[in-house]
Amino acid sequence: MSATPQPVVRRGLLDEVTDRILAHIRDQGLRPGDRLPSNRALSERFLVATPTLREALRRLEATGAVEMRHGSGVYVRADLSRLIMINPNRLRLDGAALLDLLEARELIEPHLAEAAARNASDAQLDELAANLDRAGRALDEDAALHTANMNFHRTLGRLAGNRALAQVLDSLIDLHDQEQRHILTLYADRDHDHHVHLAILAAVRGRMPVKARRLMTEHLRDVRDVVIRALEA
Fold first, then answer.
1. Per-residue pLDDT reduced to its tens digit, 203-228
2. Which domains, and CATH codes, for the chain?
3. Is the pTM of this model over 0.85?
4. Which helix (H) or strand (E) holds 69?
5. DSSP state, 83?
6. End-to-end CA distance of the chain
7. Does residue 3 sit in helix, strand or coil?
């Protein structure tokens, strides 16, 4: 009895072409928004048929790595140095999913705040302070305040020194960006929120890791309580 044929060669070819496209992006230092060479040029470079190249590009587009623009070309979409990327085809979050994400942040961010207090350089902490300066000047401007606040959390995560955890946090923030804007509206006391951020910064700059962890935990619990009350209402 003969074995069922399996298209090993075809699957291997697609994998190889996909890897070579990614390697080209990396080796050429292409960043999000940069255009790749034409399909014909890539086909000739990798010695594959154009339909095979297009299939590899469609595979990369499905994961959010590139964007195929009709009549324009193929563009890098994601930062391929990232270890962790979010699902580009996700649905809008429901209340339960939002609470799950906030709980995940509550588990991760206090650890990152503590690690930043131990590991961040003075120059990096100046960058963190600059984010809060921008937030302080934008307390009456929702869009600018949201961006500055989220950049504060992202930067603090990055300064902790763990690239994987920082990217997990970055992805969690990206996942509920729209909901976070609504939370800003619910969390009506912007001055209080800003002072909490300043207190976290002071603990991190003062090299007080335990205090930084505690303040971040309390801050995120307050945010989650606000969301729970809103969902119940």
1. 999 999 999 999 999 999 988 888 88
2. 8-76 (1.10.10.10), 95-232 (1.20.120.530)
3. no
4. strand 66-69
5. S
6. 65
7. coil
